[in-house]
Fold this sequence. Notes:
By secondary structure, the protein is of the alpha+beta class. It is built from two helices and two strands, in the order ββαα.
Amino acid sequence: MIAIFAKTPKRREIVDLNELLRQHQIALINAENEHFGSRNHGLRMVQHYARRIARLRTELGVRQY
């Protein structure tokens, strides 16, 4: 498992790259199906997870593919 500690204002939590990839995939599916009521909101969630994944990969020194 690849994990880091991410500082948050309230607590420290473990961020798992595999979990972020999973959430990103779910967000892609939900955006396609307009699960959130609007496609724009769904796409914002996709972008949110993509940014978090990119940041974590950079911090860990993990290549994209």
